[in-house]
C-alpha cells in the first residue's frame, strides 16, 4: 500500500491498532472483525452507506461504548473497554457528528475549556482555521455551520490528540464548505503527526486527503486498502457499497 507519509525500510511503529474489534449495543453486534494499523501522520477514511456501523466504530474507539471483542491499542498500550477517560488520557479525542459545542459560550471559551496544559496555544490552533480568528468573541451558537465544525475540530486540537476521531465532518454543510474543510484534515496529520480517523460521506474528497480507506457495509469490512489505489478504481468502491467485494 502506498502512503502520503515517508516510508522507511522498516514498518513504522503503529500509533493506533484495532485487533479483531467487534462492537455494538448490548447483545447486538453491529461491527465485526475490524483490524486497523495506523502510524503517526496517517489518515484513515472510514466509508460506507448509512447504517453500516461507522459511528459505532468511532464511539467504541473513544471508549463511549463497550467492546464486544478485540483490542484497541495506542502506542503499544491496550486500552480498557468503555473507559472514555482512559481513552482520552491515552490521546484519543472524538469530534462527534453533532459537534457537541457549548452554544451559549463564545468561541474562545469553548476552546479554553478544552485546552490541555502543554498543548498548542489558541493562536497556533487558529492558524489552521483563520476564519475563526474574527469570531472568538461570538457565541458558538451564532456562528455558521461551517464555522461550528471548524470550532469542533479546533477544540479537539487544543487537547493535543495522538488519535483524532472525526465523525461526519461534512454533515449538514454545503459541498463548497466541505471542499475547504477536508484538506485541513491532511494538514493536521502532516503538521501534528496525529493519526486521523475520518468518517465521511463525500467519498472522493475523503480519498484525496486519506492514506488508507475502508468500506463498511452492514458491519463488515468489504474493502480495505490504499486510498490512492481506491480513488483510481471507483468500480471497486461501487461493488463494495453494493456488497459485492471482499476485503483486500
Structural class: alpha/beta
| Beta-strand content estimate | 25-35%
Largest sheet: 6 strands, mixed
Uncertain stretches: 1-8
Broad shape: globular
- The total number of structural domains is 2
Helix content: 25-40%
**CATH C-level class of the largest domain:** Alpha Beta
Give me the count of strands: 10
Question: What value does the Rg take, in angstroms?
Answer: 17 Å
Number of H- or I-type helical stretches = 9
Order of helices and strands: EEEHEEHEHHHEHEHEEHH
Write a concise synopsis of the structure shown.
The chain is of the alpha/beta class. It is 31% helix and 27% strand.
What does this structure look like?
- Belongs to the ABC transporter superfamily.
- This is Branched-chain amino acid transport system ATP-binding protein.
- Pfam families: ABC_tran (PF00005).
- One of its GO terms (molecular function) is ATP binding.
- This protein is an alpha/beta fold and 248 residues long.
- The protein contains nine helices and ten strands.
- The chain has helices spanning 54-61, 84-89, 107-114, 122-126, 145-157, 175-192, 203-209, 227-231, 234-241; strands at residues 14-25, 28-39, 43-47, 67-74, 77-78, 92-95, 163-167, 195-199, 212-217, 220-226.
Provide tags for this entry.
amino-acid transport; alpha/beta; Branched-chain amino acid transport system ATP-binding protein; 10 strands; 9 helices; four-stranded antiparallel sheet; disordered N terminus; Rossmann fold; six-stranded mixed sheet; 248 residues
